[in-house]
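REQUEST FORM: STRUCTURE PREDICTION
Request ID: SP-0412
Submitted by: Lab K.M.
Chain count: 1
Length (residues): 213
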Amino acid sequence: MSKKNKGDGETESSEYPLDADENATSDLDTKAELPIDDVETYADTGLEHSAAENKVIEESLGRVAELEQQVAELKNQYVRAHAETENIRKRAEIEVANGRKFAVEGFAKDLLNVRDSLGLASGLAIADDQSDDLIKMQEGLELTLRQLDGVFERFGVKPIDAEVGDKLDPELHQAMSTVDGGEVDSGCIVNVVQPGYKIQERLLRAAMVVIAK
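STATUS: Completed
RESULT:
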C-alpha cells in the first residue's frame, strides 16, 4: 500500500485489486492443494456417478419387467380360476335343479305298478244287477286312480302317447312281439300292453307294445 500526498498534506490510500486471472484459476488452486488420489476422485466423480445411476436404472427396469410378467401370470390364473368357478357353479345349479325335478323318480317308478293294478281292477265290467257294494268299490277305484294321476301330474309324471297305428319309437316304446297287423302298417303299434311314463322330459318307463310285421 502507498500513500500519495495531496494539497494540505492529506494522504490517499489505494489498494490494488486481485487480478481477474486469479479468480478464474481458484478452482485449479483448490485441486492443486488436494492429494493426488483426491484429485483423481474429484475429476472422475461425474463419470462414476453416471455409471452407478445407469446400473440402478437397468436393475429397476429388469425388476419392473419381472413384476409385469408376474402380474400377467397372476391375471391369467385369476381368469382361469374364475372361469372354473363359474363352471362349477353352473354344474351345481343344474345338479340341484335336476335333483329337485327327479327326486321322486324312484318312488314314482314303484308307484307305476300300483297304478297298473288299480287300472286293471277298475277296468273290470260290473253287471247292473251286482250289489251296491261292488258298485261303490268300482267308484272308489276310479276315484283313487284320478287322485293318483293328479299326484303324478303335480310331480311331472305323464303318460307316453302310444296309440294303435303309431309308428314305433325306440326311445319311448318297447316292442314285446310282432303280429300280423292287418290294416296297420308294418312297424306300427297294434296293441298297447302296458302304458309308458315320463318324468319331466326323462323316460321313466317305456310303453310295452305289440307291432305289426
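NOTES: The first strand starts at residue 2 and ends at 5.
Reviewed by: T.R.
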